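Support request from a user on the community tier.

User writes: "When I paste my structure tokens into the form, the page sometimes reloads and wipes my input. The last time it worked, I copied everything first. Here is what I submitted, just in case something in the input itself triggers the reload:"
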């Protein structure tokens, strides 16, 4: 018996030593491993420093892009602009999620089919309130054409019988077939305003100046933007409800006295344009797409028990310029040369060449993505085809007051803010621009709630660490 107690004591002592790290600082154990693989359709851009801003003559003498040496972190970025077909996946997801939510709310019986039940749920005993808390079930198919009604005129208990409200009604219909009302395709999401949360409030006197003796934080500390009466940080959680359908009429209202009706009717939906860059999407819609793309990936990873991925977002204008340069510093175009044509005289991008000969470069308006050669980092159409939204707010002097490491000027404008505060930077030039605006340094702006037929976007993702299956640093792998 004594020997048994001795063995137990030794075992406990060994276990205690093992758990404590023998008194050494070893960090928290049993942490989940994380390997960041390149997202599908994205290229890796390594960290580096470069001279941001004008590398050629400032033709309009605007002086809004003065040269400045900056450093940028590594990131992944889409090889091409988001296409019509990729954005249509977003539209379909919103449409189908609204439909499934509507069905589950209107029919307690079908709610158990269109809400995902857990393995230990009993369909016979689970309450309606419990079902409402379950996530959507994407397995059942929806018959969008079903319109059967019973003798009382009520919809037959089936999926599409409850979805009449989603279709255009009565005199608003232009065709006989049922059409989804795009005005109801609203996507709701939440985001945290870290910019507001990071600001500190300091103790001030009656005149508004900091108190004598130094800038000591007041009792409210880091809650400078928290209205009086709030007791927690929930005020920084912002709710956005965005109608995500593209403005297909932008082709017409952007170009008065120009016949663009075929583009308005066909560009977003016709299979011919599936792999053309999506346009008619404003900055808010592009931002909403990025959040949806993040949640789409994280939902997949959570089902596999993996760590959530870093968020997708729009690139800052400095990240965009670094990616567009393709590793070539002080060169005006992504292909690394000073000319708009190659040695055979072929144009290297889709823009407005010569004196307005739109077809000379191979396309009168937008063209299919990746039609022209990629830059040295594998990115297509960084200049031409469509301009691209960036995350950055536009200010003529932002180069002068922004930091030189991952610089970015950002302002989250509210609906009540003046138009001047709603300017967002667009980069790259488009099919309707002259060659000057194809330069990687050229800065333009558009208002965040305005959609144009010549502005698209692409997403990026910050690189956090090593690539999957490789122990070296990614900058070494891709150097």
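"...and here is what came back when it finally went through:"
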């Amino acid at each position: 018996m004594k020997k048994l107690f001795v063995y137990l004591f030794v075992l406990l002592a060994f276990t205690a030593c093992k758990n404590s790290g023998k008194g050494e600082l070893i960090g928290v154990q049993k942490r989940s491993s994380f390997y960041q693989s390149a997202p599908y359709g994205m290229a890796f851009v390594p960290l580096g420093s470069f001279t941001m801003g004008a590398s050629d003559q400032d033709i309009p003498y605007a002086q809004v892009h003065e040269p400045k040496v900056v450093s940028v972190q590594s990131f992944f970025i889409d090889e091409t602009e988001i296409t019509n077909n990729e954005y249509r996946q977003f539209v379909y997801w919103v449409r189908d999620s609204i439909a499934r939510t509507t069905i589950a709310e209107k029919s307690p019986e079908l709610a158990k089919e269109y809400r995902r039940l857990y393995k230990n749920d009993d369909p016979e005993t689970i309450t309606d309130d419990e079902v409402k808390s379950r996530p959507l079930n994407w397995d059942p198919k929806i018959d969008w054409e079903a319109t059967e009604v019973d003798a009382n005129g009520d919809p037959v208990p089936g999926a599409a019988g409850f979805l009449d409200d989603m279709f255009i009604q009565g005199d608003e219909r232009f065709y006989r077939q049922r059409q989804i009302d795009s005005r109801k395709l609203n996507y709701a999401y939440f985001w945290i305003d870290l910019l507001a949360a990071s600001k500190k409030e300091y103790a001030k006197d009656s005149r508004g100046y900091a108190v004598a003796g130094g800038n000591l934080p007041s009792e409210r500390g880091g809650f400078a933007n928290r209205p009086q009466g709030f007791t927690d940080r929930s005020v920084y959680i912002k709710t956005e409800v965005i109608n995500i359908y593209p403005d297909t009429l932008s082709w017409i209202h952007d170009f008065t006295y120009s016949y663009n009706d075929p583009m308005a009717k066909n560009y977003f939906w016709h299979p011919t344009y599936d792999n053309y860059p999506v346009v008619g999407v404003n900055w808010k819609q592009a931002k909403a797409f990025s959040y949806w793309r993040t949640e789409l990936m994280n939902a997949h990873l959570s089902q596999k028990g993996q760590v959530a991925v870093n968020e997708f977002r729009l690139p800052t204008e400095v990240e965009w310029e670094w990616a567009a340069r393709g590793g070539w510093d002080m060169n005006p175009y992504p292909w690394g040369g000073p000319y708009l044509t190659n040695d055979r005289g072929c144009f290297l991008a889709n823009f407005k060449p010569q004196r307005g000969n739109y077809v000379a470069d191979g396309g009168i308006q937008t063209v299919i993505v990746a039609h022209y050669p990629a830059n040295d980092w594998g990115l297509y159409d960084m200049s031409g085809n469509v301009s691209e939204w960036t995350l950055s707010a536009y200010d003529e002097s932002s180069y002068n007051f922004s930091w030189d490491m991952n610089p970015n000027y950002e302002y989250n404008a509210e609906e009540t803010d003046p138009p001047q505060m709603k300017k967002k930077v667009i980069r790259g030039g488009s099919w309707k621009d002259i060659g000057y605006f194809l330069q990687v340094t050229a800065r333009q702006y558009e208002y965040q709630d305005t959609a144009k037929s010549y502005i698209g976007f692409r997403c990026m993702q910050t690189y956090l660490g090593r690539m999957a299956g490789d122990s070296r640093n990614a900058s070494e792998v891709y150097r």
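Agent notes: The reload is a front-end session timeout and is unrelated to the input. The radius of gyration is 28 Å. Residues 467-479 have pLDDT under 50 and may be disordered. Escalated to web team.
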